[in-house]
Amino acid sequence: MNTQLLLIQVFNGLVNGAFYALLSLGLAVIFGMLRIVNFMHGALYMLGAFAAFALGQAFGLGFWPSLILAPIIVALLGMVLERTLLSRLYGLDPSYNLLLTFGLTLLTQDLVKQFMLSHYAVSSAPYTPPAALAGVVNLGFVVFPKYRLFVIGLSLVICLLTWFVIEKTRVGAIIRASTENPGVTRAFGIDVGKWVTGVFGVGVGLAGLAGVLAAPIYSVEPYMGAELIITTFAVVVIGGLGSILGSVVTGFAVGVLAAVGAALYPPIANTLVFILMALVLLVRPSGLFGLPEGAK
Amino acid sequence: MTVLPRTAARTDRQRMSRAAWLIGLGVVLLILPRLIYPVLALDILAWGLFAVAFDLLFGFSGLLSFGHAAFWGTSAYVTAFLLSHGQSVPVALLGGTASALLLAVPIGFLSVRSIGIYFSMITLAFAQMISFVALQWTDVTGGENGLQGFARPSFLGLDFSDSITRYYFCLVLFALGFSVAYRTVRSPFGQALQAVRDNEQRAQSIGFDPGRFKFTAFLISAALAGLAGSMFTFGHGVVSLDVLNWRTSGEVVMMTLLGGTGTLFGPVIGAGLVLLLRDTLTTANLPVGIVTGLVFVLVVLFFRRGVVGTVQHWLRRR
């Protein structure tokens, strides 16, 4: 394989990695703070893409306003779900959250499918990238679509920003305190319940954002999150459940490794991540960046 | 904590209640193909045993496997492969079950070391790996098309082209599989398993090795799921990638929850209810995913004991 092709694969891998990173980052934030394994994450990613498409159809909104609005819609929906449904299961085994969100996934996917069929008479729809990001960039050694470079860049910025807020700011300190010791945090006059809802909103908002970013690359389709969520779970297991740094680094790394692996031996493309997961589990059951406590 | 001896009256009542469930279930299963069409009845047997296998792990060992489709599906494919290569029915069924058991050795070894939600995600990922292999390995699995049109040679003079014969043949297999699960749960091994489920540290401190118990339970569960998957293929005469899809893993969880986890009888009833519901929805042309998703959500939120669990709870309180 020549260097040119390898570099293209590395960049393509980074694009997939950007989606893995954004999704597993959202999962990490939600799990780290709320101990919820959100199976619905893939469906919410799909809803982000679908919201961008529907906003365009209904109000003629283009990519840029949708990039802001669609994640907000997804975040609000997530917060409503957290308040009305998920909050009923706090205190029970986390398995029940997984099962509830699994049920919600089936429901959401088929609702969107019915809606797309009845309103637009399509089962999947293309979404055009904005004019400003059309075309390709010559990086000197390789020519690459502008829009894909934008996806990599924006995803990196968002990941860094999330990490910074949680690890370095006062807001992050409150969130961490609320989750580690809700009782004491409440005693300091902080409304823990509101923070928990907010964190859930941000986590699923990240999934919504990934969905909008993915819409111009893949077409908008009710089951677009179904396979992705499984891969994301594998990424999360490799990185260490609940580790923010782990999810971002592993997200990008898995994207690149899978793309390069696929160039060398195509059938391995979809299984490589699971093989990696099995290997990591053998050596470090709590994941590369996870603390042993994270296995609990 | 001192363990108080259970009163004879209470043990008697439990035994009676268990016998009542057993007889009730047996009678329903015996007349089932007269009530609904036989292929659907056989589906209930296969999915019912699959759910029992899952419940052995979830209800009695506290391990929520989200990848049980791996064993069900692998066995389904192996059975279809053996039948299409001219093997006899018992060889195909045994081969399918054995393949699931073999597959469970590495997967179980790697996954029972993890607990809680970690275990769920790992089993899910392994199942997905198997599903990709089935998609890629077209020579053996038929890829997207699956395998179909294989013969089901007669065995002991039984003509398997008749769906009623197939049903009763599978009913015998079901009874075998169910009694294995039943004996496992009632045995000292099963009691120790439940002790590990309830308090792993305490079980360890009195000398049990939790890892070994969970691993053994995993193997039994996978083998039974394999037998069920084998019955499913044998009943339908086709196998497709659906058997390895993660929705399949989710569906068996739903059946078990709806029927009642940790009850063994419940999962069979749950499987029956889900399949009958799906059958009704398909014939009425209603969106299956929306309704099953909704049922799933409602069961998790408001009906966690399931049908059998609720009835047992209600009887106990009287």
Automatic annotation (TrEMBL), chain A:
This protein's major location comes to membrane
Residue ranges crossing the lipid bilayer per the database entry: 6-31, 43-61, 67-86, 147-166, 195-217, 271-291
Q: List the coiled-coil residues.
A: none
User: Does this UniProt record's set of keywords contain Transmembrane?
Assistant: yes
Topology versus the membrane, per the UniProt entry? Multi-pass membrane protein
Q: Which UniProt keywords apply?
A: Amino-acid transport, Cell membrane, Membrane, Transmembrane, Transmembrane helix, Transport
The record ties this protein, via InterPro entries, to:
ABC_transp_permease, BCAA_transport_permease
> Where is the protein found, in the record's own terms?
Cell membrane
> Which Pfam family is one of this chain's hits?
BPD_transp_2
Q: Which PANTHER family match?
A: ABC TRANSPORTER ATP-BINDING PROTEIN, BRANCHED-CHAIN AMINO ACID TRANSPORT SYSTEM PERMEASE PROTEIN LIVH
Q: Which family does it belong to?
A: Belongs to the binding-protein-dependent transport system permease family. LivHM subfamily.
The molecule here is called High-affinity branched-chain amino acid transport system permease protein LivH
> What is the organism of origin for this protein?
Deinococcus carri
Automatic annotation (TrEMBL), chain B:
> Where found in the cell?
Cell membrane
Family matches, as InterPro entries: ABC_transp_permease, LivM-like
A Pfam family hit: BPD_transp_2
What are the record keywords, sorted?
A: Cell membrane, Membrane, Transmembrane, Transmembrane helix
Where are the membrane-spanning stretches?
Answer: 20-37, 44-71, 91-110, 117-137, 164-182, 215-234, 254-277, 284-303
Bilayer topology term: Multi-pass membrane protein
Superkingdom of origin organism: Bacteria
Q: What is this protein called?
A: Branched-chain amino acid ABC transporter permease
